[in-house]
Hints:
By secondary structure, the chain is mainly alpha-helical. It is 63% helix and 12% strand. The protein is built from 5 helices and 3 strands, in the order ααβααββα. A 3-stranded antiparallel beta sheet has the order 1-3-2. α1 crosses α5.
Amino acid sequence: MPYHSTPLDLAFHALSDPTRRAVVSRLIEGEVPVTVLAEPFDMTLPSFAQHLKVLEDCGLIASEKRGRSRWCRLVQARFDEAADWMISERKRWTGRLDRLETYLDSQEDDEGHGKSV
C-alpha cells in the first residue's frame, strides 16, 4: 500500500502541518480570499499556495476564482470522515480498556480470596 494512499491518509497528512492547521482554523470562520488568508504567515505567496494545494488535493478545502481573486472555503465532508474514524477508534479503544479493567478487577478479586486481613 503506497504511503498516503487513501483520502483519510491524505487528510491526516495535510493536518500534520501547523501552517495548514492554522489555515483550517481561519477558514472555520468562513471563506476568504487567498491573499487575506496568507497575511498572517511569514512566507511568500507561492510557498503559502503550496500549503493550500495540499489541503485542496486531499479535499479539506476548495477554492474558486472570483474576478481577480481566488477564494478558499472548507469542505465539511472530509472533516466528517476524519471525525467518524476518530469516533470509531475511540469506541474500540474504550471497549478494550473497559475489558482490561474488568479483567484486572477479577484478578484482584481472585488474589484476595485466600488472604486474611
